[in-house]
């Protein structure tokens, strides 16, 4: 199985960390191909960044489709561009946000999310509602850490995340914790051991769910909202992408 | 008052129709400035088109902000790019989809939507749920007309839309009808007279709600999901847009 | 445009304040006709007062209809009598509660309401649910001020309201505030400046939404729950009102 | 136990039928005191009638309170005036609509309602949502029979109601039927026998639930929305009622 | 009327307490037959205990059916085995949890539940959602008292329950309290007097609702999920029970 | 990895079919251990059968735990006994119903379920609501086939299921189909090819999700509703099971 993991921001060091997390989580016989666009924002913190990383993300998806791939993982916790990617790709696509919510629902009746910045909470709440799993989520919390600070040695990121986890267990009646950023992937094991509840990070969850879909021979339904793009006139730089996608 | 109405697709004849509808609906003393991006899809029919019209749309929003404007209207019924535009703009932004739902809720307990293609139904249903007005909507129906066919003389578009309206009143217990495409704006009056129920089109609704916000001195809250973009490194063609937006 | 603003309680000084707020908010060319019943409670604080102000309110609506009017605004935040008024009137009717919720939803993802007394919270929560906008409301808070104390010079009303606004921003993640009483209309501007978030008061919001409906040529749907009263036998003082209304 | 059953319309023959149904359903040792206002509409068909029957209804409630009573039943399926009556009365108050929904939920996973006119459907749907039992209701159906036609010998009322019940069982997956008008009370037994599912009428259900509350020593909570009216200035005919009620 | 009250755990002293509470609450002419299985757990604290008390519970239900009974009450607040019992029994079946929620909804707009252990909260929340009354419930609280400690003289159970009630009124805006364990039945009167709000215990509520169903001649609908068991092959000790039940 | 698949009914031929489906779906290096209780019903069709298969099911779970296992799959589409099994087991437990809903949500915006008998629809609807994925499900349909008829050669089972799938795509706007019975597992591939939409069967979905949990090192949270059984007195045949489980 070949799984394409795309980090929609342009920070290569973060892509490397995501790729490592994906490989750690992947089952036997799975090849992880990780990449990121070369155009767009260095991190995704709010709706503006989200919207403008999508063209680069879709180009990566299209390139991986042409190269032959069994599934795509979008490694931004906001599940940025997921609908468009599903419309574009023949292979199934899994977002790390939705993956984490689905997996958490299998091991906990109720979970809380700990993400980076409060400005991302509304987007995550909308995704939870769309996925249908909002009722399983007690609360989305922000540790108030910029995304790229997660990579900084000596930052207090882990301490802040741990503090929110403590509050989630005490105040939200959370039975599990979802880490709400691709950059938090390598904290999951340590935090789970510390707090004694499942701590789910989305990169691994998405890779494993992508494997499940591949193994079951399932692809995105092309009836409904994820139908392939219709052929039509396009102007500007996205025309080739659109031409390749239309059916 | 100066209201910027942006058609996010590249079809200038459709922009002209939207501008005319906006001017018909506008109150005294309102100047409508209408435009469309010069890059992107000729029509918006599904998530892929939606995602890739957003960069062009945001450039139009940014240009209008610089030129001085009191409010923006996004004239695509999917409310494409609305969150990113609200994060970017200082002036308030109204989507024609949400505008139609809010206005319909003031004159009908329950309404149905008649849109173009079935592939757009899921996106509209998600927007209804986000707006909070999904409970007021009996059903989203598709007349199965391509967007640009709405402009074609001699098409059967109006007949098909009328047929769906008839079904909505008979089967959905709809008390009003929302027309689910910017290209349907000039049908509203005729169809309302024919069926004896309010028929709401979004362009006029959005212009009038934008006037209301301007009149009340209200702008988008910058606390939460619509906070301005954070300054950060950007690569590629969106960097200038991002630099102008970041605060 | 002629807009009828009816204060459903009998306190003429409050009606004068509401009329002033309506005129401040109204667009060019709008005439505000404000009034109140001469029978009923001096303020509306709970379900009992609400129910018994409705006959007087409906008489005012009927009189304004006969005098020729383009829209009605019901200036009690509980949206008292709104359904019956819509059934009675040919012109559109807007409640200040629903108006504030709709307008807040256009500038904030999430808002809190600050009303007068805790006994009114359940009625406001029901209205939010009926409108469909309950999901957009983080919390309804009470400042524990009697309605008529809002008019008393030197009262601590504004300080108490401000305290609740502070809590709403800090604890509810509110991005905007809705002031939950017609008597609070002139506080909105000052409180918005102080807290840096939109503060919406319903009288202005309703006047501007009424203008929007008039401008769009929209009236209440007469199919469904707001159909005109059926002709039937009536006893007692409401018989003339009913006879005038039945169709 | 003394239970006051108030028919909020002025049709004495309908009050007699309701009283008979109440007495048939009542347990041993229960005295039914039935009455109706002498001012108001002859039947309640929509929001306008609903609003204007409330003053007469509240006078009846107040009179019964003074006479000494253990509980009140409001015998209109729209649960007209229920909130105001609960604020006014010391004794518990049960509406026949909510009573029927609660009882149906104890014998069926899912029920449909068959009411008189389609114009009443929205009000019943709102009540179902307020009660919390909307999810248990598959559909509210209208047999399109005016309320007073239920009393007319030789009307086709029962046939039309039966036709809707047949559709509810076949199409709605209804496991029980709620009859949505006080005037349908004596049809329940016959229709239940005919269709082989529980058919619940609200007058009996409400009397039995009122007995349950009395037996358990429970009264309306006076904390929250049903707190007693506050003392204040009143003008006009309701002043004595308000004075008696305020605490 | 003969009402069978079954305590699904094996603690006879608790059954005696439940029987006493049932008799206190029952109306004139009602005979209470109380019992418990002789196989199963001594108390029900979580899903495992719940699942394994059901066979014994169903045997008790079947035996009471054969002996002739008018209704069954399941006296565990988790409403353990309620669906299976309804499928098995011809007589109506009422759970004490659902009974308490329905009754509380008639005297309070909003209630909180105080149960024994936090591990039971998820089950109660699921039941509230199934019943449809979750929206009426502000919060389910646990006093952290083991079930059988409720019987221990000198325990601090009542003090802990009272502390949670105080918090529910202050923090949840609860207008009434539901006691969430059959073993708390005799505290209701004292706590209601102390806190000045209705305090509902489920045993009495269920007995009175069972009387209501009997009085109205209503039985469980046999169309849908509560249809009688189908005849089929059974192995092991439940075969006779299944044979007796199948239709 | 060793995955225990338990068919909660006693029909060994059905267990064999389930085991075969599980092995077909399993990834490399996965050993499937399939079994069924020797006591209980031959098929599970409704709440009564569901309740009485649970003791046998839990004994199988406990035995597999003692034998050493990495995860359990409960192969009844009603997810019978799932909560009790999660409380009992240290290894994670996945129900085939929930597994199918989660997997369908990754490849379709909206799905319909086709199950065996209408009497099972309410239980599936409750599970959908508990899982949180009810909003993703358009409708639960019954093909009206007894469970064991699925195994009968020459039955019209597949034709009836196909007919419901056709209706689901045409009438429910279903983008994927979930087959609602463990006995339908081998129909999925053929029906998916025929209808051109993903058809998900739960046994394979659950095995693949169980692999995902094992691969991620995740186990059921023991904080909350799935905490281990408390030690207590037990009478009768379940005492040893309870003693082994309590912690």
UniProtKB/TrEMBL annotation, chains A, B, C, D, E, F:
<dbReference type="GO" id="GO:0047661">
    <property type="term" value="F:amino-acid racemase activity"/>
</dbReference>
<protein>
    <recommendedName>
        <fullName>Hydantoin racemase</fullName>
        <ecNumber>5.1.99.5</ecNumber>
    </recommendedName>
</protein>
<dbReference type="InterPro" id="IPR053714">
    <property type="entry name" value="Iso_Racemase_Enz_sf"/>
</dbReference>
<comment type="similarity">
    <text>Belongs to the HyuE racemase family.</text>
</comment>
<dbReference type="Pfam" id="PF01177">
    <property type="entry name" value="Asp_Glu_race"/>
</dbReference>
<dbReference type="InterPro" id="IPR052186">
    <property type="entry name" value="Hydantoin_racemase-like"/>
</dbReference>
<dbReference type="GO" id="GO:0036348">
    <property type="term" value="F:hydantoin racemase activity"/>
</dbReference>
<dbReference type="InterPro" id="IPR015942">
    <property type="entry name" value="Asp/Glu/hydantoin_racemase"/>
</dbReference>
């Amino acid at each position: 199985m070949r799984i394409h993991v795309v980090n929609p921001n342009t920070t290569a060091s973060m892509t490397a960390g995501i790729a490592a997390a994906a490989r750690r989580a992947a089952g036997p016989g799975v090849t992880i191909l990780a990449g990121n666009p070369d155009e767009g924002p260095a991190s995704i913190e709010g709706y503006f960044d989200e919207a403008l990383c999508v063209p680069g993300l879709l180009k990566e998806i299209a390139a991986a489709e042409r190269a032959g791939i069994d599934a795509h993982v979008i490694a931004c916790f906001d599940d940025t561009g997921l609908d468009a990617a599903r419309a574009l790709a023949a292979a199934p696509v899994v977002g790390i946000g939705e993956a984490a919510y689905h997996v958490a629902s299998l091991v906990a009746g109720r979970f809380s999310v700990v993400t980076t910045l409060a400005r991302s909470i509304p987007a995550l709440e909308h995704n939870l509602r769309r996925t249908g799993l909002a009722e399983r989520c007690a609360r989305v919390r922000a540790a108030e850490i910029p995304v790229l600070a997660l990579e900084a040695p000596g930052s207090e990121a882990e301490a802040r995340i741990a503090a929110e986890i403590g509050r989630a267990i005490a105040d939200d009646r959370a039975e599990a914790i979802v880490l709400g950023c691709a950059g938090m992937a390598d904290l999951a094991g340590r935090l789970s051991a510390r707090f004694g509840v499942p701590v789910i990070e989305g990169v691994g969850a998405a890779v494993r769910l992508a494997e499940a879909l591949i193994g079951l021979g399932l692809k995105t339904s092309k009836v409904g909202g994820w139908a392939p793009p219709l052929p039509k006139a396009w102007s500007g730089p996205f025309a080739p992408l659109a031409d390749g996608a239309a059916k």
